[in-house]
Amino acid sequence: MIKKEPTKKSYFEVLRQRINIIIHGVNTPAGKLFDLLLLGVILLSVLLVLLETVEHLDNKYHEFLVFAEWVITIFFTIEYVLRIISTRKPLKYIFSFYGIIDFISILPMYLSFFIPSTKILSVVRALRLLRLFRILNLGNFTGQASELKLAINASRTKITVFVYFIFIISILLGAVMYVVESKESGFTSIPTSIYWCIVTLTTVGYGDIAPVTSLGKAIASFIMILGYGIIAVPTGIVTAQIANSKSKRKVFAPNCPNCNSQPLADDAKFCSKCGTKLN
Amino acid sequence: MIKKEPTKKSYFEVLRQRINIIIHGVNTPAGKLFDLLLLGVILLSVLLVLLETVEHLDNKYHEFLVFAEWVITIFFTIEYVLRIISTRKPLKYIFSFYGIIDFISILPMYLSFFIPSTKILSVVRALRLLRLFRILNLGNFTGQASELKLAINASRTKITVFVYFIFIISILLGAVMYVVESKESGFTSIPTSIYWCIVTLTTVGYGDIAPVTSLGKAIASFIMILGYGIIAVPTGIVTAQIANSKSKRKVFAPNCPNCNSQPLADDAKFCSKCGTKLN
Amino acid sequence: MIKKEPTKKSYFEVLRQRINIIIHGVNTPAGKLFDLLLLGVILLSVLLVLLETVEHLDNKYHEFLVFAEWVITIFFTIEYVLRIISTRKPLKYIFSFYGIIDFISILPMYLSFFIPSTKILSVVRALRLLRLFRILNLGNFTGQASELKLAINASRTKITVFVYFIFIISILLGAVMYVVESKESGFTSIPTSIYWCIVTLTTVGYGDIAPVTSLGKAIASFIMILGYGIIAVPTGIVTAQIANSKSKRKVFAPNCPNCNSQPLADDAKFCSKCGTKLN
Amino acid sequence: MIKKEPTKKSYFEVLRQRINIIIHGVNTPAGKLFDLLLLGVILLSVLLVLLETVEHLDNKYHEFLVFAEWVITIFFTIEYVLRIISTRKPLKYIFSFYGIIDFISILPMYLSFFIPSTKILSVVRALRLLRLFRILNLGNFTGQASELKLAINASRTKITVFVYFIFIISILLGAVMYVVESKESGFTSIPTSIYWCIVTLTTVGYGDIAPVTSLGKAIASFIMILGYGIIAVPTGIVTAQIANSKSKRKVFAPNCPNCNSQPLADDAKFCSKCGTKLN
Predict the structure, then answer these.
(1) More confident residue, A16 or A218
(2) What is residue C57's three-state secondary structure?
(3) What digits encode the pLDDT tens for the residues D201-215?
(4) Are A121 and A111 spatial neighbours (Cβ–Cβ below 8 Å)?
(5) Residue D220: pLDDT band by 50, 70, 90 thresholds?
(6) What is the C-alpha separation between C211 and C196, in angstroms, rounded?
(7) Closest-approach residue (CA) in chain C for B190
(8) Range with lowest mean pLDDT among A8-17, B166-175, B244-253, D111-120
(9) ipTM, 2 dp
(10) Shortest alpha-carbon distance between residue A100 and chain C (Å)
(11) A205: alpha, beta or left? (left if phi > 0; alpha if psi -120 to 50)
(12) Which fold has domain B140-252?
């Protein structure tokens, strides 16, 4: 009996490892297949959420949609349990970002037993989309995406200043438009005017609210040209950032043999950190 | 009789070559004239398709439009037959991209004998527009277009990541807006909300669907500023790419034979470092 | 009598020169004052044209507006006559671009004697605005404007290719939308669909025509993201052009003392054209 | 008694200094706390102004909103008085930009005793938002904001030329559209047409006014593509400016004392040309 126990344990351990390889493995065929399957089920599941909300489709295929949703929920539940079993630190996974997303993905259907299914509950399932990032982060896209992320991160402070600036302008001009335009033309309160101002500054222009007085139209024209002009600012910031990071990577010369720092130009003859002669 | 056959064959061969020169020739006067004629007929034919769909014009000039369409169809049919005859490998042409376009261009009118002419059939003729590319590809524009194409191709992966990102955002924010806004304000289903979200993110803003609740307007404002900000990303990518390809192409001249420094311009006659004469 | 004639001639000549100095002079006080006066009258005159078309203003102040318009027309007539008199080659002026603009500026009021004043006739007066360019071209703005003009000119071919590409896309996608959407949703003919497609591609989005079918909305979403993406192309072209012309002008080193050509870099030691040593 | 006076004076002087430290101090804990408190009160006060204009909120909580407004007004009044007392040159402060903003911030409530409270008076309080700049200018954002400001300032002349160009185009095309389109489609006067033209050029596109004739739609399409294209110009200007100022600021380190070449980075310790140690 003493011998049996470790075997049992190792059985379980072996199982845990095999599940681990399938679920977390990227380079094994089984892992790749599982990722593809998961990708398909997630996309299908999100598609189901979308179609369910289309009234005439839901009326026709309600039974089928609910059935399919149950199949997917059970599939995700099994996957969730396997993920908990296969990790060494289950609690760490459960309270991680993806752990919570995974849990929320399966919750709504089970909750519908106890409480009547609401709009919010069924929409929460769309969060499954976030699970895509886990799969795709391990794929080929990461290189390109991370380069974009770097450029955006580097210009984050500038863009924050910019957004802050847009808010101040919108509040001030919104207040002015509230005074200038009457309630009849849609400017019923300052918050609504601010909303209109953002719609105009960003050149979206729904037209549900539009100025009717001459002065209002003149101010609106000013806001439009302003918005049309300042769109140049974030574009300029990001472009300069991307162009900069591009030119930084331009140097192809080998690193310094002494201190391993990257030379600053292809034709550098001496290392700028330690002064070692480069060949 | 034996002698006559080769003559016949060569007659045909000569004819084939003359047709070939006219249809495919670009540098011969006949070829140029034919291209210009074809350009005109294609533009005229597309114009006819457009005008036919304008009801009050079609009511007035229906007879004339049908007649003109027949003249053009017959012209294109003859051209199609000549193209098949004049090529050495007719099958290769027939199943090539342009071969299929050419065939589709003449099909609708002949089909109208057998089946009643439908909206789709007559619009298919607008595909003739694609034939323009064959003519213009041989023209002067190619240089400029291919440079643009290179820049776009080089940033294709980044733009794919970007479009993928926009889709994820649109689905998630669309689902949120579906919950926040009621059906009365146009957010009847998640797909419709996603459509609205794309309309807003891209700053198009039709206004056929627009938020009415305070929370909806707040989220919409956030989406607008987001869309207004992230437009900077593709612009930055393409700009950096174009600027980069521009600076790369700057100097093709060989390095200085004396000091091996790179000349600063293609037309430099003397090295700017040591004054050695460049050839 | 013989003596008198040259005096007369010289009187006229002196007058012609004085008028010339006032009208064409930029650096004389009288010329500057005249330019400022002209600037004011042109702006005032254009403002009058604008206000005349506002119905409730025209009803109230019709008499005054007509009177002011006559005063301005007479002022411009005198100026036109003086310009003809003061030039050595009157015919060259009369048939030049600005000569024709000047003539068209005064024509409408005199024509109103013979034919009833129409909408077009009164709007033609807005062309006086073009006269501003003559005055401002001589001002300080030219430097900046010409730099912009250079950058735009240099990227003209690329932008033409780009616009041509937008047109082809609009026609093809317009034809597709005409088939997909019904007449009830506003897509009454292909030209209208093309108009809608341009409205969408350029992210203007009036919303007077908007897709209602699912397929139509899907295609519209595609067009929007396309438009949102390709706006990067002209921006990239112009930006790279401006950045390029900026970096070209960066060299502050003095020109070559031998051949007077501009050195290609600040640290160039030898002229790249003639090989002369630079200090 | 002689001794008492200087003591009184110094009491007052000490108090003045302590107030000064609290109000103007940034690096002292008391100063920081005061700034944070002020920030909160300003934001709260602006929020109150916004909410007051929302009818259904004002109906419900009118009493509370007026009370809160009075509390804030009294707080700002005390702060205003303290600022006057604590400065050595009270008049300079009172007539400075922020002094006037501070005064205007407290005025409306006191005026409501004498004259009935109007829409304008209550909106004027939104100007308190401008007070934020005084607080934030002393914070961390300044570095980033001033860099943006520099780039925008440097391209100001070019952007002025650009805006001027847009105005001329809008007036001319507005006049053309007024002639082409009838009053029924919204083009009631040239000023309205100009407003529509700006709405279209800037790609805002409300849709409250939209062309209905074929010619009008064709011209509108032209304006849209024009607007879509020329947005590239300000973007290009600002981007080139930012990229330029970025590359200019790259290296501030002194040149190599041996070969006088510019170091390639601020933190370079050895010259990359000759290997001399830099300090």
Answers:
(1) A218
(2) helix
(3) 988 999 889 999 999
(4) yes
(5) very high
(6) 10
(7) C214
(8) B244-253
(9) 0.78
(10) 32
(11) left
(12) Helix Hairpins (1.10.287)
Q: Residues A30, A32, A34, CA angle at the centre, nearest 5°? A: 70
CA distance B181 to chain A (A): 11
Does D11-137 match D140-252 in CATH topology? no
* C-interface mutation test, from D237, D247, D259, D264, most C Cβ less than 10 A away: D237
- Calculate mean pLDDT across residues C191-204: 92
Contact B119 C178 (CB under 8 A): yes
* Predicted TM-score (pTM) of this structure: 0.81
Nearest CA in chain D to B236: D239
CB of C229 within 8 Å of any CB in chain A? no
Whether the CB of C163 is below 8 Å from some CB of chain D: the reply is yes
For B183, the token pair is: 């059906």
From A229, A243, A270, residue closest to D270, measured CB to CB: A270
Contact C207 D203 (CB under 8 A): no
- Measured from the Cβ of residue A250, the count of other Cβ atoms closer than 10 Å reads 11
DSSP state of D263: P
Is the predicted pLDDT of residue C171 greater than 60, yes or no? yes
Residue of A160 and B85 predicted with greater confidence: B85
- Nearest C-alpha in A relative to C203: A204
Class of residue B70 by CB neighbours under 10 A (exposed 0-12, middle 13-18, buried 19+):
exposed
Report in angstroms the alpha-carbon separations of C279 from B23, B264, B276, C248, C267: 62, 18, 16, 21, 10
Neighbours of A263 (CB within 10 A): 21
The amino acid occupying position C40 is G
**Interface membership of B118 toward D (CB under 8 Å):** no
Query: What are the boundaries of each domain within chain C?
Result: 11-137, 140-252
Q: Quote the pLDDT of residue B138.
A: 47
**Coil, strand or helix at D100:** helix
The CATH fold of domain A11-137: Four Helix Bundle (Hemerythrin (Met), subunit A) (1.20.120)
A36-45, A108-117, B108-117, B241-250 — most confident range? A36-45
Cβ neighbours of B169 in A, within 8 Å: none
Q: Minimal Cα–Cα distance from A203 to chain C, Å?
A: 8
Query: In the prediction, which pLDDT does A227 show?
Result: 85
Report pLDDT for C73: 92
Quick check: B228 and A199 CB within 8 A? no
What is chain D's mean pLDDT, rounded? 79
Q: Which residues of B touch D229 (CB under 8 A)?
A: none
C96 touches chain B (CB under 8 A): no
pLDDT per residue as tens digits for the range D236-259 = 777 777 776 665 544 445 566 666
A vs D, Cβ pairs < 8 A, gives: 168
- Helical packing angle, A142-154 and A156-180, nearest 10°: 60
The alpha helices in chain A, defined as continuous H runs, are: 4-24, 29-52, 55-86, 90-94, 97-114, 119-124, 131-137, 142-154, 156-180, 190-201, 214-230, 232-248
pLDDT number for residue B1: 43
**Mean pLDDT throughout C204-213?**
90
| Residue C65 CB neighbours (<10 A) | 16
Distance of CA D153 to the CA centre of its chain: 14
Least confident of A64-73, A120-129, A201-210: A120-129
Tens digits of per-residue pLDDT, D51-78?
888 888 888 998 999 899 999 999 999 9
Q: How far is C173 from chain A (nearest CA, A)?
A: 22
CB neighbour burial string for B56-66, b if at least 16 within 10 angstroms, e if fewer: ebeeeeeeebe
